[in-house]
């Protein structure tokens, strides 16, 4: 590794003007990023990690911030060191995307909804590299293959909304790598990805870094990813740098109490061995009573039988249905009252569609859904609206699911207003109580979604889901965008609420360590089918299906001495879930390998 900094941040201070006066987003922060080195910046949401990266790209001015002090020295391709803090926007336009690539956290907001994927991928190549249309197309196709997107030729013609979250994120990564930048800033690039793709993206970024000598500034809250990727780690807390060291020093000999608390909050795979029931995490620096496992009950609340959801693929002059996407295929399971059933699998495997089909946010083709004795599939529009009080959803992307024009108190009160359950002072008290429950200060009730960090927005979404006291909550990747300490608190919060209110969760996730922590039962999904389902201990201690084993193999471990190399990851490419009209797959057949532990015996395609 060469000791020549490509980027040097020196005594940076960034200020924001708010209703309550000037706030320092980052204060007196200094660190270097050398060529061929990965520097991971870790900390909670709101600690100033993203602010420092946006400042380096000089995008912070567009977000209402201003650089009050400090230097941002960047070593350009032609060898001149440039202070980006004083560079003009015209010069920054040449540098952005060309010499500094950026992978943003939320792929849907980073992509333009009105242009095809191909157009967005080729744009930077044509502007910065002067490529012809055909050359740019070829390079775009090569990039799509590099980030392992299935059917890349077809995807280039599609629009962002036609891709799953994980695929969109891979497109954003391909865009950032397109011009082979000297410095790659990755802001939570694998947050929304499932473990297998995350493992591959991390290996890909690591390989590109070694091959091209690119410097990587990697912003994350996932300590397992830090252990996998980092050469050096910078720990940030409330806008300041509290600790910096090599990855081994930080993991083995953390000095600052905040770093210690951060490492304590990481759920580790295998921690729950020998414990049949989920239990809340022990958090440092917080008084906790007795930690009790959550037994739940053995009374079924939700029974799903033969759920099948398909989406038509239109084509031809008359926009006829020429094929179907088999998103959910013959899925059956039972969720008991007061328990958590987790669905895990890669993006595009049908987990989210399954959750949405149960709530009838997406209309299934067929199947039976029984929620506490009510046949959800047989309800008319008015009855369904009433029944929705019993089932709520926490969405993956809180920014997209909250209304940017309403303050947060109104958003949490909205379900109660819609159903007329509370009003006046009683409603205000309940909203305040919900804010207390999700551990947000009451002063936030006047704020708007854009004034909160990702983790705080997700808590608002949880408060809103709890407003009507539902029986079932479908949590669709509810904690995937949160940082570890907030994730641990939100998981504990969800489990406390479960123990207290007898809530049942259908927990959709790709984070195996989190699933191990919260679940009573686990279903593993692949290509729309459940390939293995059973009690959590059975699935984690004795995985039977080849795909479940591959999934376990991909999970990064929060230990820098146990890094995964690319040769450990031998995933098969995911076949297409699109089949011609009239194609009927064989029904799912399962073998019971242990009490309650079922494995798919009919061909799953893996």
UniProtKB/TrEMBL annotation:
GO MF annotation, one: ATP binding
Location(s) in or outside the cell:
Cell inner membrane
Q: Where is the ABC transporter domain?
A: 7-263, 302-552
Q: Which SMART domains match?
A: AAA
GO cellular component, alphabetical, reads: plasma membrane
Instruction: Tell me the superkingdom of the source.
Output: Bacteria
Q: Which keywords label this protein?
A: ATP-binding, Cell inner membrane, Cell membrane, Hydrolase, Membrane, Nucleotide-binding, Repeat, Translocase, Transport
Example GO biological process term?
Answer: peptide transport
Which EC number(s) are documented for this chain?
7.4.2.10
Q: Which reaction does it catalyse?
A: glutathione(out) + ATP + H2O = glutathione(in) + ADP + phosphate + H(+)
The membrane-topology field of this record reads:
Peripheral membrane protein
> Which CDD domains does the entry mention?
ABC_NikE_OppD_transporters
Q: Does the keyword Transport apply?
A: yes
Q: Name one Pfam family in it.
A: oligo_HPY
Give a yes or no for keyword Secreted in this entry. Answer: no
Q: Which InterPro entries does the record match to this protein?
A: AAA+_ATPase, ABC_transp_ATP-bind, ABC_transporter-like_ATP-bd, ABC_transporter-like_CS, Oligopep_ABC_C, P-loop_NTPase
Cited function: Part of the ABC transporter complex GsiABCD involved in glutathione import. Responsible for energy coupling to the transport system.
- How does the record describe its quaternary structure? The complex is composed of two ATP-binding proteins (GsiA), two transmembrane proteins (GsiC and GsiD) and a solute-binding protein (GsiB).
Instruction: Spell out the family assignment given in the record's similarity comment.
Output: Belongs to the ABC transporter superfamily. Glutathione importer (TC 3.A.1.5.11) family.
Q: What is this protein called?
A: Glutathione import ATP-binding protein GsiA
Source organism (scientific name): Salipiger profundus
């Amino acid at each position: 590794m060469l000791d020549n900094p490509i980027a040097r941040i020196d005594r940076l201070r960034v200020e924001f003007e708010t209703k309550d006066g000037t706030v320092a987003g980052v204060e007196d922060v200094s660190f270097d990023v050398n060529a061929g080195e990965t520097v991971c910046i870790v900390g909670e949401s709101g600690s100033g990690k993203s602010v420092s990266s946006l400042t380096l790209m000089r995008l912070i001015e567009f977000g209402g911030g201003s650089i009050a002090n400090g230097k941002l020295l960047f070593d350009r391709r032609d060898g001149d060191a440039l202070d980006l803090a004083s560079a003009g926007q015209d010069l920054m336009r040449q540098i952005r995307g060309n010499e500094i690539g950026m992978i943003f956290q939320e792929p849907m907001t980073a992509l333009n909804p009105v242009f095809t994927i191909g157009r967005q991928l080729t744009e930077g190549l044509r502007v910065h590299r002067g490529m012809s249309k055909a050359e740019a197309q070829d390079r775009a196709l090569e990039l799509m293959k590099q980030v392992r997107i299935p059917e890349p030729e077809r995807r280039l013609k599609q629009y962002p909304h036609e891709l799953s979250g994980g695929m969109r994120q891979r497109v954003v990564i391909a865009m950032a790598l397109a011009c082979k930048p000297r410095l790659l800033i990755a802001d939570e690039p694998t947050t929304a990805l499932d473990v297998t793709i995350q493992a591959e993206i991390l290996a890909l970024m690591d390989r590109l870094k070694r091959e091209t000598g690119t410097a990587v500034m990697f912003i994350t809250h996932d300590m397992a990813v830090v252990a996998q990727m980092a050469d050096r780690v910078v720990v940030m807390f409330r806008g300041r740098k509290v600790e910096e060291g090599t990855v081994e020093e930080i993991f083995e000999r953390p000095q600052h109490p905040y770093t210690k608390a951060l490492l304590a909050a990481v759920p580790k795979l295998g921690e729950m061995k020998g414990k049949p029931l989920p239990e809340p995490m022990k958090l440092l620096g917080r008084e906790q009573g007795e930690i009790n496992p959550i037994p739940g009950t053995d009374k079924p609340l939700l029974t799903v039988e033969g759920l099948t959801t398909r989406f038509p693929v239109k084509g031809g002059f008359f926009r006829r249905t020429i094929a179907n996407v088999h998103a959910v295929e013959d899925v059956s399971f039972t969720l008991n009252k007061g328990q958590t059933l987790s669905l895990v699998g890669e993006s595009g495997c049908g987990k989210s569609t399954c959750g949405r089909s149960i709530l009838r946010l997406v209309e299934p083709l067929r199947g039976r859904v029984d929620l506490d004795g009510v046949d959800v599939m047989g309800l008319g529009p008015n009855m369904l609206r009433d029944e929705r009080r019993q089932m709520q959803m926490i969405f993956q992307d809180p920014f997209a699911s909250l209304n940017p024009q309403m303050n947060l108190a109104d958003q949490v009160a909205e379900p109660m207003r819609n159903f007329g359950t509370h009003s006046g002072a009683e409603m205000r008290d309940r909203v305040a109580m919900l804010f207390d429950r999700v551990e947000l200060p009451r002063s936030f009730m006047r704020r708007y979604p854009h004034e909160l960090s990702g983790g705080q927005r997700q808590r608002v979404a949880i408060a809103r889901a709890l407003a009507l006291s539902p029986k079932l909550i479908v949590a669709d990747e509810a904690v995937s965008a949160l940082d570890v300490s907030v994730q641990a608190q939100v998981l504990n919060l969800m489990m406390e609420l479960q123990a207290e209110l007898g809530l049942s969760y259908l927990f959709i996730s790709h984070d195996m360590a989190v699933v191990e922590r919260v679940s009573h039962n686990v279903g593993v999904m692949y290509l729309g089918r459940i390939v293995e389902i059973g009690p959590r201990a059975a699935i984690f201690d004795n995985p039977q299906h080849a795909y479940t084993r591959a999934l376990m193999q991909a999970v990064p471990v929060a230990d820098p001495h146990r890094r995964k190399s690319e040769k450990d990851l031998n995933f098969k490419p995911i076949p297409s879930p699109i089949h011609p009209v009239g194609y009927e797959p064989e029904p799912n057949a399962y073998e019971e390998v242990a009490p309650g532990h079922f494995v798919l015996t009919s061909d799953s395609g893996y």
